[in-house]
Amino acid sequence: MMPTNMKLALLLSLSLTCSLSFAQAIYGPNGEYKGYMQTSPSGVTNIYNSQGQNTQSFQTDNGQTNFYSPAGRYEGTVTAPIQPQPNTTINTPRQVPQAPSVKGW
Asked: What share of the chain is helix, strand, coil (3-state, %, to 5)?
């Protein structure tokens, strides 16, 4: 049997581990379950298919995303900072140039 203080320590560590990770289900366009993604406290995101198999991992740090295979092999990097777009109307019609006018004549 495990002493009470060890049980409490184990329970506390499990509860902290569970509370610091984030998981989100993934669904297809027709509502079918595709799997889930889980982000660890260190910022590593693992993607799992509907059978629970890890299909890919990635980690983003300072705008650089590193991708890894299920076996942990490095697969590449993307550095693409996200630029917020101005809040403008798309495809605004052009205005016809106006001829200059002289007032007061």
From this structure: 15, 35, 50
